[in-house]
Inverse folding.
């Protein structure tokens, strides 16, 4: 007797040729689409949280809008927001303050970071990582924590800084002149280590044979820094100064946290970023605030272009490579 499992009636009929071909085509299509499926979450998140806010801010800068009234309350005004922002004296004042902070805190960063990185590179061997890490800690520390710590240190009545200085206590955060100096120092202190790491990474690429040849020619340590290291650091200087321009022109946390908005010196340290924030969230004028943000973008782009012209095509092209 034949088993039912081996009988001809139990054998499944072969699949049609067109069904096998369709499954093979589907597998080929799935293999081609798999890479796009894996990277799709990035583009979705970028579109929702990156590209859409960017495009919406451009659209918003051309409208007058009260956020509490909903999107239906948007009123087209064209370039009036830009004209209003340019003619607003508070915008001009905030822009001058921003440029002052960019110079007062940015220039010392590089004047100190360059020789300091060279000194660490030439003299420290075993303890180099520890020293560089110590300089880098302020950069990775929360800006709110840094501002709160310096608020305590520069307190007029109970601050450590006044306790160490002779004479009457200085109102570091209540006087217009000293408040600007304090904020510039905090920004300088925070980003000094970042620039030291950048320059140190570039110095480690320079061949030691160049220093040895300069030493044989009788060059001092300063001459090695001036005539060997500095010319070869030009691409990194362009990159580091560009980052400083972008960061300092968007300065927000330090003046916003160190100086209360209701104090008498808040306007003397008001940067363009804090002016934009107060216009949007205090005055409710989101259209003009968006216009200010794009004006600041154009200013940063112009200064970055000027920085590229200052360092020449070599610096920009070497960084791009």
């Amino acid at each position: 007797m034949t088993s039912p499992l081996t009988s001809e009636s139990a054998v499944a009929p072969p699949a049609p040729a067109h069904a096998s071909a369709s499954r093979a085509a589907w597998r080929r299509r799935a293999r081609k689409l798999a890479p796009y499926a894996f990277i799709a979450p990035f583009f979705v998140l970028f579109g929702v949280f990156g590209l859409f806010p960017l495009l919406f801010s451009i659209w918003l800068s051309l409208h007058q809008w009260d956020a509490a009234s909903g999107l239906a309350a948007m009123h087209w005004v064209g370039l009036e927001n830009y004209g209003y922002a340019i003619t607003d004296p508070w915008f001009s004042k905030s822009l001058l303050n921003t440029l002052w902070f960019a110079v007062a805190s940015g220039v010392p960063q590089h004047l100190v970071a360059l020789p300091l990185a060279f000194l660490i590179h030439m003299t420290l061997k075993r303890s180099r990582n520890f020293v560089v890490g110590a300089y880098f800690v302020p950069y990775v520390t929360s800006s709110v924590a840094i501002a709160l710590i310096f608020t305590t240190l520069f307190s007029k009545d109970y601050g450590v800084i006044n306790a160490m200085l002779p004479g009457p206590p200085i109102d570091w955060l209540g006087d217009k002149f000293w408040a600007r100096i304090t904020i510039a120092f905090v920004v300088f202190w925070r980003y000094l280590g970042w620039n030291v790491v950048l320059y140190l990474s570039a110095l480690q690429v320079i061949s030691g044979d160049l220093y040895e040849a300069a030493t044989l020619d009788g060059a001092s340590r300063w001459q090695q820094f001036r005539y060997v290291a500095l010319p070869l650091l030009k691409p990194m200087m362009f990159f580091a100064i560009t980052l400083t321009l972008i960061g300092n022109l968007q300065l927000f946390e330090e003046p916003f946290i160190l100086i209360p908005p209701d104090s008498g010196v808040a306007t003397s340290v008001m940067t363009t970023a804090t002016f934009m924030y107060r216009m949007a969230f205090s005055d409710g004028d989101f259209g003009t605030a968006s216009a200010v943000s794009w004006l600041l973008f154009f200013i940063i782009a112009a200064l970055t272009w000027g920085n590229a012209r200052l360092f020449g095509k070599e610096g920009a092209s070497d960084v791009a490579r």
Notes: Residues 143 and 253 are 7 Å apart (CA to CA). The two ends are 80 Å apart (CA to CA). The longest helix spans residues 17-60. The chain has two domains: 17-60, 80-320.
